[in-house]
Amino acid sequence: MKVLLTGAAGQLGHSFLAGRPADVELIATSRRELDLADISACRDAIQRHQPDWVVNAGAYTAVDKAESEPELAMAVNAEAPHAFAEELMDSGGRLLQISTDFVFNGSQGTPCRVDQPRQPLGVYGLSKAKGEEAVQEVLGGGDQGVILRTSWVMGPNGRNFALTMLRLHQEREELRVVADQVGCPTSTQTLAAACWRAITGTKPLPALMHWSDAGAASWYDVAVAIGELGAELGLLQKPARVQPISTEDYPTPARRPSYSLLDCTGTRRALDLEGQHWRSALRDVLSAIPR
After folding, report:
1. Residue 176 located in a structural domain
2. Phi, psi values for residue 229, rounded to 5°
3. Percent of the chain beyond pLDDT 90?
4. Which end of the chain, N or C, is surrounded by fewer C-beta atoms within 10 Å?
5. Residue 291 forms part of a structural domain
């Protein structure tokens, strides 16, 4: 099987590469090899490599910056998967499109179902929602185009909340972290395992899937856990005090969903994978940080 991976230099890309089965031919591309804003290059990559699967882990993920760069966000997050889908329709390959909890507005107060309407709050969420719609429009409702939404992704490499909080715990005595946005962290290690199971398994896949680690948390809860686990693992001498604040206390250019927990029950059943509690998965992430 031949797999084309985008975003190989990103945090999910690192974990996906580490989990590669020996019998898979993996074409790993970062922005240097494949700029997702270059739609012609996206089409050419499919025509040249003829992959059995494209795992589109690359994305424009700067949520706040997207408000001032909507054209770039749309090109990377919507137009690139559209181009992949059209070329794969002709070649017969399949697409695993990595998406986000930000396609929902978070107002429902219960875990987001795979089939509920997309109602993004900002440009980033809208661009990812448009990418989903393009994949579904071109590849239909079968398993040639599979959308896997995830949330609050954190890994031992790259840029993410866990690594930022770990650094701030080292630098400051007190941190103020939002406590009224609820979701669930997702380890790049468990997410990569789910991706590999999806593309190497033999069972039919749902066209829409959700994957996060198990449980629920606020950003405040996660920040506290990072301090505690960092001290336990010898990454910190002493964690900072973490004070809970409201979203209003920390204004940002882009609005965030207040409740973006994903209902993953159907996906866990489809992939035959159990969920790992987010705190345990976070401990594994921090343990894997290069030293």
Report:
1. no
2. -70, -35
3. 94
4. C
5. no
Closest CA to 98 of 173, 6, 205: 6
Which of 60, 124, 220, 259 is labelled catalytic? 124
Contact 255, 178 (CB under 8 A): no
- Of 51, 59, 80, 55, nearest to 5 by C-alpha is 55
Contact 217, 183 (CB under 8 A): yes
What are 108's two structure tokens?
Answer: 């429902």
Structure tokens at 45: 């990559």
Residue whose pair of structure tokens reads 């949520």 in the numeric block: 63
For 140, residues 6+ apart whose C-beta sits below 8 A from its C-beta are none
What are the C-alpha distances in Å from 235 to residues 225, 279, 288? 13, 16, 11
Q: What pLDDT sits at residue 129?
A: 98
* Domain containing residue 8: CATH number: 3.40.50.720
Distance, in Å, from the CA atom of 202 to the CA atom of 240, rounded to the nearest integer, reads 47
pLDDT of amino acid 290: 86
Evaluate whether residue 246 is within a structural domain.
no
Provide the H-helix boundaries in the chain.
11-18, 39-49, 70-74, 80-91, 123-139, 161-171, 188-200, 219-232, 265-271, 278-287
- Mean pLDDT value of segment 215-236: 97
pTM: 0.94
pLDDT tens digits for range 33-73? 999 999 999 999 999 999 999 999 999 999 999 999 999 99
Instruction: Look up 259 and say whether it is catalytic.
Output: no
Q: What is the extent of the structural domain holding 135?
A: 2-154+186-212+262-275
Q: Exposed, middle or buried: residue 192 (CB in 10 Å: 0-12, 13-18, 19+)? A: buried
- Total tally of structural domains belonging to the chain: 1
Helix, strand, coil % in the chain, rounded to nearest 5: 40, 20, 40
